[in-house]
Amino acid sequence: MNLNQVTLPSRDIAESVEFYQRMGFDLIVHSRHYARFKSAGDATFSVHASKLCNAGETVIYFECDSLDEQVAMLQGRGIVFAQLPRDESWLWREARLFDPSGNQLCLYHAGVNRLDPPWRIR
């Protein structure tokens, strides 16, 4: 099976659309209660209007080939990061931020360690 998309709760669709477009994602579907974006390859994700946002419990990961440059570019667009890029013990380099509804996002670069870490089950 191939993962189609992830849908995040949004307190304000217009605010979410502006945020994710500023991050560089392409808006492909938009209504009063819903928006879908295309990321690299065939992956998509969406936001859906919700009064009950249990944000922060789920983390959405977006892989970046040039993480530090991507973070610098987004900071130039006014995106604020909760954690700037740093090397983690699981061999990924990660930066973290929150969208306007409080959903946690992780921009990362893992290279071969994403699918083939040294501790992978063989």
Concise overview:
With 122 residues, the protein is of the alpha/beta class. 16% of the residues lie in helices and 36% in strands.
Query: What global shape is seen?
Result: globular
Order of helices and strands: EHEEEEHEEE
Side by side, the strands of the main sheet go 1-4-3-2
Unreliable stretches: none
Counting DSSP H or I runs of 4 or more residues, the number of helices is 2
* Counted beta strands: 8
What does this protein structure show overall?
The chain is of the alpha/beta class. The chain is 16% helix and 36% strand. The protein is built from 2 helices and 8 strands, in the order E-H-E-E-E-E-H-E-E-E. The chain has helices at residues 13-22, 67-76; strands spanning 5-10, 26-30, 34-38, 44-49, 59-63, 83-87, 93-98, 104-109. A 4-stranded mixed sheet has the order 1-4-3-2, covered by helices on one side. It is globular, with a radius of gyration of 15 Å. The two termini are 21 Å apart. The relative contact order is 0.20.
